[in-house]
Structures are given as structure tokens and as C-alpha cells.
Amino acid sequence: VPFVESGGGLVQPGGSLRLSCVASGFTISGYVMAWYRQAPGKEREFVARIRGISVPTDYADFARGRFGISRDDDRNTIYLQLNDLKPEDTAIYYCNRQNSPLEWGQGTQVTVYV
């Protein structure tokens, strides 16, 4: 499995989590990396992408201003900082290469409960 996601958990509205995704079998430095999520009964959707260390990132409208994507190419890892979480953010979060995706990992569950 090329991606191992971690860092999810149970959190109350307004809380924060930091997700990590360790890639293996390739070097992330040559790729646009992205986070996606899939809520129960819904299709997987784009959350954020990062092109390079010092290149602007892109976010889905629901993520802009609350989430932050970053990468550490030396650790072959990308991160997703989740802030001001809402119940509608409950989903399994995945990472992958955006333009040439590989096999999906298990993801990490984020549950925002009232």
C-alpha cells in the first residue's frame, strides 16, 4: 500500500486534528499531492492539494480558511491540519497523487460529534 494515513479521531465541533500521510514506493517530491475525503453514503471528494514546498496550495471551498496542507519531502510525508471542525467534516480522509493516483490506502477516520 503506497499510503498510510493517520491522525484521525473523535473531536467536538471547533476542535482540531493534524493528519499525516506517509508515502512509500516513490518519492513525493516529483508529484502534486492531495487529500481527499469520503463521508458515509457519499462519493470521495477533493479537499486540498500541494504542488511544491513554496508553491501556493489549492483548497475546496469548504476547506479554505480552516484546513492547511503541507509537505515534508525529506520524510516523504504530507500533512493536513484541520481546524474549526464541523460535524459535516466527518469522513474518512485519504491522500494520493493527484494526477497519477495509486492504490488508495485505508484512510484515517475523522468524526466530529456534538
Structure description:
- The protein is an all-beta fold and 114 residues long.
- 0% of the residues lie in helices and 46% in strands.
- The chain has no helices and 10 strands.
- It has strands spanning 3-6, 9-11, 17-23, 33-38, 45-50, 58-59, 67-72, 77-82, 91-97, 108-112.
- The strands form 2 sheets. It has a 6-stranded mixed sheet with strand order 2-10-9-4-5-6, with no helix packed on it. Strands 1-3-8-7 form a 4-stranded antiparallel sheet, with no helix packed on it.
- A hairpin with a 6-residue loop joins strand 4 and strand 5.
- It starts with a strand and ends with a strand.
What letter string, H or E per element, gives the SSE order?
A: EEEEEEEEEE
How many beta-strand elements? 10
**SS-derived structural category:** mainly beta
Output the number of helix runs: 0
Range of helix content: under 10%
Low-confidence stretches: none
> What is the end-to-end distance?
34 Å
Biggest sheet character: 6 strands, mixed
* Oligomer kind: single chain
General shape: globular
Query: Quick check: average pLDDT?
Result: 95
Give the radius of gyration.
13 Å
The order of strands across the largest sheet is 2-10-9-4-5-6
Note the beta-strand portion: over 45%
